[in-house]
Amino acid sequence: AAAGKAKIAARLKRSLPVRGPQAPTLSELMRWYCLNTNTHGCRRIVVSRGRLRRLLWILLTLSAVALILWQCAELLLNYYSASVSVTVRFQNLPFPAVTICNINPYKYSSMKDYLSELDKETKKALETFYGFSEGKSKVRRSADEWNSTESDFFKHIPLLKFEDFSKTVTDLRSGQKRKIEGSVFHKDSSIVNSGDSNDIIGFQLCDANNSSDCALYTFSSGVNAIQEWYKLHYMNIMAQIPLETKERLSYSADDLILTCFFDGLSCDKRHFTRFHHPLHGNCYTFNSGENGTILSTSTGGSEYGLHVVLYIDEADYNPFLVTSTGAKIMVHDQDEYPFIEDIGTEIETAAATSIGMHFTRSRKLSKPYSDCTETGADIPVENLYNKSYSLQICLHSCFQKAMVDSCGCAQYAQPLPAGAEYCNYKKNPNWMYCYYRLHEKFVKEQLGCQQICKDACSFKEWALTTSIAQWPSAVSEDWMLRVLSWDKGQKINKKLNKTDLSNLMVFYKDLNERFISENPANTLVILLSNFGGQLGLWMSCSVVCVIEIVEVFFIDSLSIVMRRQWQKAKKWWNNRKRDQSGKPSQASDPERQGHDNPVCVDEDLPTFNTALRLPLPQGRPLPRTPPPNYSTLCLETAFTEQLPDTLEVGQH
């Protein structure tokens, strides 16, 4: 009985058509899905009558799917976007660090011994090109005299006068004209030919190892040319002077600061911290926080900030190095390096400069929302400044590292890397040419520093508002200068002049701390909610429908394709074995469906409803309903005799 049962079940399975996920073809699977899915559009495609209506439902369903994909893609693209929030708080604010430098880095009277030869050659250039002779009559020196006094300055970088923007130049040493070769670089932002070609001054830099490889640097202004030429030799000289000597040659705190007040209370040099800047000499930072204490202020306004009077001493300025008078200041955080040369604010002499501040603290989101760095630890550039990371620190450190790698020495204006030394003519005769070539690549973003360095994610900023007033006034000038001269009489052996003084006030305009932060515009919960809204709006679909789509369109479809490929491969292998053995091929049953596949291992007997869908045996007539037995239609009565009332009248 069991064997007969199994045989009947197997025969029924081979004959029943397959429905659902185990359908043998993709078309049958899609039809089953459209009839059984919870999404409405797919079912309407199958059950709609008429080609036009079915076509409309196909277009509507595909449009809905396209809209869903578009909206979901927009949601994914905007997932890592950030919204900016601004918070304003009213509280006591920490006072920032204020760094003050004299524009003139070193006292000219102390530096004359080191710069005497350079100054003499500079004056020669001015006399030759412009007839400048410091009040004396112009004297034209002979070529022999020039050659006898020739120095290393003209050997390395000769000053040249260009004619008509051509490569015909007049040499400063000999006064002779000659042709030179090399790439021309105009150091000014724009050069306008005014018809006076004598104003074009420049110099030539050549590779020490290849004299034919030269670069020509021209300037439309002789002032710029002389200053650039002077600074190159000046840095070469300063690079050879020890740091202790340079600190002694620059300004002390007593020299620079005459009076000091903070929050209405007197302060002195003990509140300032000295640090030596390569280009600005000794600079002094108020409230540097080195002793662990950071001053704060509880009241806004000019009366409660920092108030200092600076002694500039214009008479002791280097006439060739700087052409302006005054001081440079920078407001910054205690952990931030003051790049005075880049973003310092200049204040003038004989004036009162008021600088009002607004404090803003900003924080950006790091990856994947933005390409900023938290601490700079992920940036492959060594921090040479011993301060917290910033974009400027990274760029300067990157250039200095490239300078050491390419030129064999470090540029004087930036800190020294470990094991390196500053460039000078004696040890590095090719450093100027190498420096200019490298700086040109840096400006054109060809060194890769701008690609490596990133913005800091969190930073503090003080927005400055500057106003200037004449100081001291004409009516108070006399007594004020006398009192200041008397106060500093032991250190200043002359009467002060107002052009030697500068009045500086730095204060908070208000105590509003503005905190700007970025917050994720989307979270995972919001993203899933938006997905659900789009699916429900366009397809009336839920998470279960999504799982159903994944199962049918990916898992089941892939299974059908793989099953088909396996059957083809199996059939090909069987035919090959049969051809090799010489046996005749057996006709395949075209009516066999999915239950012939060994994947279908369901052993349950078919139900009554499925049995009704069994195909009829071939070659046999369809069963018909047998005709009725008409004899059974005869009426039989229970009465033996006919009742009298049923008799016809004619029988009576």
Automatic annotation (TrEMBL):
What Gene Ontology cellular component terms go with this record? apical plasma membrane; sodium channel complex
Query: Pfam family of this protein, just one?
Result: ASC
Which stretches does the entry tag as region Disordered? 573-600
Q: Does the keyword Lyase apply?
A: no
| Family matches, as Gene3D superfamilies | Acid-sensing ion channels like domains (2.60.470.10), YojJ-like (1.10.287.770)
Q: Does the keyword Disulfide bond apply?
A: yes
Q: Where in the cell is it found?
A: Apical cell membrane
* Entries under PROSITE patterns matching the protein: ASC (PS01206)
User: What domain of life?
Assistant: Eukaryota
Q: Which GO terms describe its molecular function?
A: ligand-gated sodium channel activity
Q: Where are the transmembrane segments?
A: 55-80
Q: Which keywords has UniProt assigned to this entry?
A: Cell membrane, Disulfide bond, Ion channel, Ion transport, Membrane, Sodium, Sodium channel, Sodium transport, Transmembrane, Transmembrane helix, Transport
Q: How does it sit in the membrane?
A: Multi-pass membrane protein
Under catalytic activity, the entry for this protein gives: Na(+)(in) = Na(+)(out)
The record's listing under NCBIfam families reads: ENaC
Family membership, please give it.
Answer: Belongs to the amiloride-sensitive sodium channel (TC 1.A.6) family. SCNN1G subfamily.
- This protein is called SCNNG protein
